[in-house]
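During the reporting period, we have paired protein sequences with backbone structure tokens. One record among many follows, to show the layout:
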Amino acid sequence: MVTIHESAASRVVIGPGALACVGDEVERVGGARVLVVATPSASAGADTVVAALGDRVALRFDRPVAHTPVAVTDELMAEIGEDAVDVVVAIGGGSAIGLSKAVSARTGIPRVAVPTTYAGSEVTPVLGETRDGVKQTRRDAALVPGTVVYDPELTLSLPFGLTLTSSLNAVAHAVEALWALDATAMSDALASESVARIPGALPEVLVDLGDVSARGRLQTGARLAGLCLAQTQMGLHHQLAHAPGGTF
């Protein structure tokens, strides 16, 4: 049987303090007018990025919504208006990452993603948008960000409950990839390593939410799980999650 494996090209900056590299990454892609999209929970990190970018920040949007409602994207596009932006920096969980994908899909501008949860969306070419309570997804290689910045220090504020559920969400990506119809040796390797890393680091993090080293290992495991989501077709679990997620 012939199998096909595709890997999306993406630059990754990872490690404690990596947030300080966002300005360099914006400059690397020629960003002069920056849109910063941030979830309220990531406001401190967004403040740091905005201060570092200075006059290059054209607009900051702090109102992303889960499951990327089209109405919210339209609201943001109206705010951008004639003051066109040339790069979008997303800081936060899946809500911010998803909204930045929607903007990029409409404008074609590059993205720098700074995830603060373990959702994995930052490394996938998948965009799920909700219109009138119905969520639809699509895949497009252009939706993969040019750079992903992983700073485990940004995850220290994640409370116990969200740390647990976000991590188990990442495990679900990896487990589902293992039985995907289009799984390959590469996706199996990524999934297996992710399934080993996340349960290995998660108990340490739950005992000490401020353990930066364990948070870093958890973040790496979640990244591998996200790559599984990017490289295989997800199955029943994700389809069931998308339907009620968009509706409710």
Summary: Helices lie at 22-28, 43-53, 70-80, 94-107, 160-178, 185-207, 212-231, 236-247. The beta strands are 11-14, 34-38, 57-61, 87-92, 111-115, 126-131, 134-139, 147-150. The chain has a mean pLDDT of 91. The two ends are 41 Å apart (CA to CA).
